[in-house]
Amino acid sequence: LLKQALAKEAEWSQQVPGYQRDMQRSGRTPLSPLERSLYKLMAERELNNWAAGQDAGAPELPEDDGSDGNNGLPMQLLSLDSMGKVQQVGGDKSGNDEALSANMVTQPCVTGLPSNVLVPGLGATPIRKDAVIVIIRHGKTEHNKLGLFTGWEDAPLAKDGVEEAKQAGRLLRAHGFEFDVVYTSWLTRAIETAWYVMDEMDCVWLPIIKTWRLNERMYGKLTGLSKLMVKQRHGEKQFKAWRRGYDTPPPKVSSFSQHYPGNDRRYQSGIKDVRYSLRESLIRSIESGRPTIARKLPKTESLKDCMDRTIPFFTEKIVPEAIGKGKRVLISSSENAIRGLLMHLCDIPQDKITGLEIPNGLPIIFDLRSKCVKLLDDGTGRDPLETYNFGSAASYLFRPCQNEDGSPDEECTIQLLDDDSDLSGSWLGSGISAEDQASLDAIKQGTVN
């Protein structure tokens, strides 16, 4: 069906006047024939489903945003029973029961909006001065929306991906964040995300350090292919091994593939910290007709391979050059590179890291004092674990935030009340007093001057 769609695409391109012009994206980069064909297939499928009455009773399939969505299973949350023991809430309780660590929590630490944002006229938002690490996955691309393996393919942000990045910048600014340095990969989607965040924060003048070591995982021959097609062609088991296996790389691309980094001038001339390859040098010398030295660039990567370049860059460059000097750091990168950073920062087990999902465009705050991950209240009152998919390893990411003396971190001021509570579904300060509650009620009723 895809081959037929591509053939039809080529036919229309030749026979319909102005077809190429009309099919341009609203941005600077046109849709590729593959993307246009996939969009048409999606539209045709949706139309067929509607005509057959599928949407009358059948559940809708979730949009593939480039993540597994916890493999279709409910998110596994943890809570403490009356004896203080960890128990599973929801999710699939069948199967193998694992020993659950008592330092896992059901709710992430959510930092409340500053009072001046909630109540106008209270002055400017206090600026955060302490060193901090803010990590953000790039906004959505067309490849994410279509369920394609992207890897080192340089897909730009989609329209809604741009808005995700802008919203992240507005949220960080509302919470009083400022940065001293920005790190990003060599991929356009990560660079654009950093730009839009910085623009919203009025700090586009900040130094941006770009490195290929923060690039997404290199998917080899899977690059640019539909995930659904790969699953159908190679089977569920092989698909999961390539996509979610920790140390199983996809098939390699050839030295002459358009997806091989050695054929991209940014990697040909820009990478200086990788050894030379005798084989690649011989191939390039024959190809160019003159002696040429070429480096050994990745033709495919497992998740482990990706982390083996990402984590050392963090520990050997970012830590001594920025964090160790008390700087406030923003890192804009891709999902698998971020998995490596969070695995290192949060001590997530190797066998669990593949189950961690990173939402697009969401600022993830790593507090260097309490050594924990925090999220920012966006003022909507939504439960972040219901709004965003962090995968089956969410409980390993969100651990208790405590000060050095063991006391609870005072920034974790937001908690979602249970459904049995009188204020079900609302956000409330942790441990609020009756007097404070009366004041809040008065404000809501407009009785306070």
Count every beta strand, where a strand is a DSSP E run of 2 or more residues: 11
The coarse overall form would be globular
Low-confidence stretches: 57-103, 416-432
Distance, first to last CA: 67 Å
Reading the helices and strands in chain order gives HHHEEEHEHHEHEHHHHHEHEEHHEEH
Helix content: 25-40%
Helix/sheet category: alpha/beta
The gyration radius over C-alpha positions equals 24 Å
Mean pLDDT score: 79
Largest sheet: 7 strands, mixed
Number of helices: 16
Identify the strand order in the major beta sheet. Answer: 3-9-8-4-7-5-6
Strand content: 5-15%
What's the topology here?
Blueprint lengths: L1 H14 L3 H4 L10 H19 L25 E4 L5 E4 L19 E3 L3 H4 L13 E6 L4 H5 L12 H16 L6 E4 L3 H13 L7 E3 L16 H8 L1 H9 L20 H6 L7 H11 L14 H19 L6 E6 L1 H12 L17 E4 L4 E5 L7 H4 L6 H4 L16 E3 L10 E3 L4 H12 L4
Parallel strand pairs: 3-9, 4-7, 5-6, 5-7
Antiparallel strand pairs: 1-2, 4-8, 8-9, 10-11
Defining key terms:
single chain, alpha/beta, seven-stranded mixed sheet, 11 strands, 10% strand
Question: What's the short story on this structure?
Answer:
This protein is of the alpha/beta class and 449 residues long. It contains 16 helices and eleven strands.
Descriptive overview:
The protein starts with a helix and ends with a helix. It is α/β, with parallel strands linked by helices and 449 residues long. The model is unreliable at 57-103 and 416-432 (pLDDT under 50). Strands 3-9-8-4-7-5-6 form a seven-stranded mixed β-sheet. Strands 1-2 form a two-stranded antiparallel sheet. The chain is globular. A hairpin with a 4-residue loop joins strand 8 and strand 9 (372-376). Helix 6 crosses helix 7 (188-200) and helix 8 crosses helix 9. The chain contains 16 helices and eleven strands.
